[in-house]
Every structure is written in structure tokens, then in C-alpha cells.
Write a structure and sequence with these properties.
By secondary structure, the protein is α+β, with helices and mostly antiparallel strands. It contains eleven helices and 20 strands.
């Protein structure tokens, strides 16, 4: 099978890349290994979309991105999958229902007549030197070979880039952002978690850990009511082994087993010791642990921590990063670093183009950046924006047999919105 654009990974970045490429007229194939689109927002139950809005001291969320990110927000609101943006401290985020996210993603892709989506499908191999000539896909023991004109790696782990021989980087195990295990609880008295109650709960959990009644992973457990009745999401950050590799199936399996064990123990402890949880029941485990950082592609340009802190201005800007550096290297919660004057990071087209690979683009958390910059650029809102840009670049290359400049990508963003959408 031949196609114009192959997109690997159906998370926020891959979803935006595939829809953008298809709307730009490219015959597009979207490949996702899970049974639903949405990536971390669905499979890992990451229930808040960060990085959609500008950093600002004043209240009132202001959308940072033009094109598909704003359209996706509007669709989530119309579907009842989000109440709209909410402010936490000095940050605006979009809480959402993971099932609602998956349903909107299904609708969005189904509307694209030149887009084919393959779920339950894994990348097995990549062929070519200096460019990707073909890829082998595997689904339930059935193999297929695809010959794409251009490719977007939105796998989150730079899976295609690594198989194709492109350069990748990965931080040391002691530096990697810790994975998150998120689970849902039902029949919680959410009113009893208002005000300072969550601070007192954190202190109670810390005391239980120090007394040996809970394992250390319970430190930093964060509880957030969803606004849907008595439902609460709990997030815990997990530590891997000393040589932790987020692409290792052995390490991932151990993390997920640890997360489930910890969720069961936490629920039992809270039922016995906290009045808000006396009737609490486990409602859902994630399909996978929430990976925040793994491999990153080496691009034609690399975004550095200094660029994020100073507010990088790039003449070939095609997307924005508008989230502070959220460094989660320890179990006790994030360490924040904000850019000067809350400036956005202008993401250059070169950070989405794999160095030395003629037709390989990247989007999402594996774009070309250093470890600390990645802590600001990995969030779902930025993934949607970089996915849109990478998809448009790939479609342009497929249609014209040459890579575009940033001006061509920016010009297309206004043209790919659905006919009923405002021009964001």
C-alpha cells in the first residue's frame, strides 16, 4: 500500500498531524497501537490538557494556538467532555473526560475522507537509508507494508525514528521525568476535599508512609475531583529501577504492576482512615502508565532550556510552547521554572524535522529539544500544536516532493479548520 503521509501514534500529536494532513489533501494513514485514539489523555487517564493557554498573571484563559487545538477544545465543549478552562494557581488548564476525548477523536478522524485509521497496529520495521522508503506494520499476526511519501513520528518514544536509524537522545535514568499512574475512584465525598482538606490528606499519607503503613510511592499522591458526581482521579508519580528505561517492556510492566498495587493499598487505607473515602471504590485503572519522557529525535534545530526560559523567538516558528518547565524527577511533586515575563517558546520548524532523514517529521513529546526544555514542551496542548504543524509539513512535502518552509506551514493553518469552526 502506498500513502502520502503515514502518522505513527494516535495521541494528541498524531491525531492533529493526521487530521491536518488529510484536510490538506493528503492520503493519510494513522497508526495507533491501542484500541482508541487519544494517547496519554485516554490510555493513561491524563485528565487535564495543559499548554493550551497563554501564561499570564491575569485571570481568564486565552488560547495560545491557532487552528486545530482551538477546534478540538470547541468540540470537547460541545460534546460535554469538558466544562471549559479552569485556573489552578497561575495556570489555566482544560479538564476533560478521557472517554469524551476518545469519542471526539473518533468523530474528528471519521470526517476526513482521505484519512484511514488503523488501531491495534504496531510498527515492526522501517526501510530506507536517509529517508523512509517503507515501513512494516503488524496487527494480530498480520503483516502489511506501507510505502509513504512522508512520515510523522508522533509515537512519543521516537519509535519510528529509532528503527529508521535517525539520531535520538535520552536523559539518564536519574534525570528522566517520573511516570505517572492515574486511577479513578467513585463514591467519594468530594465536598470533604475542599479547602485545606487536601493538604491535610497529604500530611496524613506522609505520616502513614513514614510509619510503614503505606509504601513510599504514596508520597505526593494527588487527588482531583472531576466534577462528575462523586468521581475523583488520583495521580501518583512512580520511580523505576536505577537503570530505568521507559522503552523497556520489563520496566513498564513492573511500573504498571506497582501502580495497581499502590492504588489498591491507597484505596484500602483511605477507606479505613479518611471520612471522604469511607465508601470509595476503585473505578478504573489506566491502560498504561503515563510516560512523561523517553527518547527525543535529533532535529535540524534543537530547543534548549535557555530558549524556554528566555522565550525563544524563531523566524521559522510553526507552533508555541506555553507551559512552564514542570520537572518531575522526585516523588514529592513537581519543581516549576517559569519563562521570563511568561513569554511563549516559539517552536521552529527545524525542531520537527529529523536531521539526516529526508522525509521524517516529528511531533509531540519526542520533538528535538533538551531534557529540561522537554519538561515544558511535552504537554498535550503543545502536542496538538506541533502535530498540526508536522502534519501540514508532511502533506506539503508529499504533494510537492519538497519540504516546505515555515511560512507555507503557517499559511495552511487557517485553511484546514472545519467549515463550522471559527478561525482561532
Amino acid at each position: 500500500m502506498k500513502c502520502d503521509v503515514l502518522v505513527l501514534g494516535g495521541g494528541g500529536a498524531g491525531l492533529a498531524a493526521a487530521v491536518a494532513a488529510a484536510r490538506a489533501g493528503a492520503h493519510t494513514l494513522l497508526v495507533e497501537r491501542h484500541g482508541a485514539l487519544g494517547g496519554m489523555a485516554v490510555a493513561a487517564l491524563v485528565h487535564s490538557i495543559c499548554g493550551l493557554y497563554r501564561l499570564r498573571v491575569e485571570p481568564g484563559a486565552v488560547l495560545a494556538h491557532r487552528g486545530l487545538p482551538g477546534e478540538f477544545v470547541a468540540r470537547l465543549i460541545r460534546a460535554g467532555a469538558t466544562p471549559g478552562p479552569m485556573r489552578y494557581g497561575r495556570l489555566d488548564v482544560l479538564p476533560h473526560s478521557p472517554p469524551g476525548f476518545a469519542a471526539v477523536a473518533d468523530t474528528l478522524t471519521a470526517e476526513c475522507l482521505t484519512l484511514e485509521t488503523r488501531l491495534h497496529t504496531e510498527l515492526a520495521a522501517a526501510h530506507g537509508a536517509g529517508r523512509i522508503e517503507a515501513v512494516d506494520l503488524l496487527c494480530r499476526g498480520t503483516n502489511s507494508t506501507i510505502e509513504p511519501a512522508a512520515v510523522v513520528d508522533a509515537s512519543g518514544d521516537a519509535t519510528l525514528a529509532a528503527l529508521a536509524g535517525a539520531g535520538t537522545d535520552q536523559a539518564a535514568a536519574t534525570q528522566l521525568q517520573r511516570p505517572a499512574f492515574i486511577f479513578a475512584l467513585h463514591t467519594v465525598d468530594v465536598a470533604a476535599l475542599d479547602g485545606d482538606a487536601r493538604l491535610r490528606l497529604a500530611a496524613q499519607l506522609a505520616e502513614a508512609v513514614h510509619a510503614g503503613r503505606l509504601e513510599r510511592g504514596a508520597l505526593g499522591a494527588h487527588f482531583r475531583p472531576t466534577g462528575r458526581g462523586a468521581e475523583v482521579y488520583c495521580t501518583v508519580d512512580l520511580a523505576g529501577p536505577d537503570d530505568f528505561d521507559p522503552t523497556s517492556p520489563v520496566h513498564l510492566a513492573a511500573l504498571e504492576q506497582t501502580g495497581r498495587r499502590l492504588a489498591i493499598a491507597l484505596t484500602a487505607f483511605l477507606r479505613a482512615h479518611h471520612p471522604a473515602f469511607k465508601r470509595a471504590e476503585l473505578a478504573a485503572f489506566p491502560t498504561q502508565v503515563g510516560i512523561r519522557e523517553s527518547r527525543r529525535v535529533r532535529g535540524e534545530a534543537t530547543i534548549t532550556v535557555e530558549a524556554v526560559l528566555c522565550g525563544l523567538e524563531a523566524p521559522d516558528c510553526v507552533a508555541f510552547g506555553t507551559w512552564p518547565m514542570e520537572l518531575r524527577e522526585k516523588p514529592t511533586g513537581p519543581r516549576w521554572r517559569y519563562p521570563e515575563d511568561d513569554r511563549p517558546t516559539e517552536i521552529p520548524l527545524g525542531a520537527l524535522k529529523a536531521a539526516g532523514m529526508a522525509n521524517l517529521w516529528t511531533a509531540g513529546r519526542c520533538i528535538s529539544c533538551d531534557h529540561e526544555a522537554q519538561a515544558a514542551l511535552r504537554v498535550i496542548g503543545t502536542c496538538l500544536a506541533t502535530g498540526q504543524a508536522a502534519g501540514l509539513a508532511a502533506a506539503w512535502q508529499a504533494n510537492r516532493a519538497a519540504p516546505p518552509g515555515a511560512a507555507e506551514v503557517r499559511a495552511q493553518i487557517e485553511t484546514i479548520l472545519g467549515p463550522e469552526q471559527d478561525r482561532w
